[in-house]
Design brief:
Blueprint: H1 9-21, E1 25-27, E2 33-34, E3 40-41, E4 43-45, H2 54-71, E5 77-81, H3 85-96, E6 100-103, E7 116-117, E8 125-133, H4 137-148, E9 152-161, H5 165-174, E10 178-183, H6 184-194, H7 202-210
Parallel strand pairs: 5-6, 5-8, 8-9, 9-10
Antiparallel strand pairs: 1-4, 2-3, 6-7
Helix pairs in contact: 1-2, 1-6, 2-3, 6-7
Length: 220
């Protein structure tokens, strides 16, 4: 199954440059970031910063809404991932005139013990909104919760993907399609063009993308 739907090159470059312009993407190949998973990364993407810049936020939400219209025209509800996907799901849903909700990282231990917030009817055609996809594990946890509640998850829409092969394999195995507004390769190209990184850094960055578990890129 093809797990990646289309986003135009122009949109990818526009969003990539927007993220770079507000410092939402950090490059540090000589002092790697450490993700929660323990993976050492030369790049860190903080899409929460997009909410604080009105121009960039509008560009992203408009692009998300368009991507959903074009790739998931029969969507009936948007469901954000906790927590970074929630505001993007809310704004895109408002633009599209669709209901929205979100999936908690874990079920509440009080009240109604909700794992899903918002009204979700069985078989409702659902698009999951995620801020970024790295290995794909987090977004698939959300998909599993929604499917367990009876939702018909027709796909994922995200702002950014690292283009890691492990994410493609996991999404494919789960039968989940994803459309991202921009991706790792496009951001790297834009970062070189705009002088955020040096051309000689590209080989190391792509080596990380191809095999994040192999830290050999750090010393090359």
């Amino acid at each position: 199954m093809n797990t990646s739907t289309s986003t135009s090159i122009d949109t990818k470059r526009k969003i990539a440059k927007a993220l770079l312009s507000i410092g939402a993407v950090f490059f540090r190949p000589n002092e790697p970031f450490v993700w929660a998973s323990g993976i050492k990364s030369p790049v860190y993407c903080d899409n929460r910063l997009t909410l604080s810049d009105v121009t960039v936020r509008n560009e992203i939400e408009s692009a998300l809404a368009l991507a959903i219209r074009e790739n998931y025209p029969n969507a009936e509800i948007l469901m954000g991932t906790s927590t970074a996907g929630i505001p993007h799901a809310a704004i895109a849903a408002h633009i599209l005139g669709l209901p929205m909700g979100y999936v908690r990282a874990s079920a509440k231990d009080h009240g109604r013990n909700n794992h899903i917030e918002g009204k979700l009817a069985p078989k409702m055609k659902t698009v999951v909104i995620e801020d970024l996809i790295s290995t794909g594990g987090s977004v698939l946890d959300t998909v599993d919760v929604l499917r367990g509640a009876g939702a018909d998850v027709i796909g994922v829409a995200s702002i950014f993907t690292y283009n890691m092969s492990i994410s493609f394999k996991r999404l494919s195995a789960a039968g989940v399609q994803n459309v991202s507004l921009t991706d790792f390769d496009t951001i790297v190209d834009a970062a070189v063009e705009l002088g955020y990184i040096k051309p000689e850094d590209v080989t190391r960055l792509l080596a990380f993308r191809d095999n994040p578990a192999d830290e050999g890129w750090i010393n090359t």
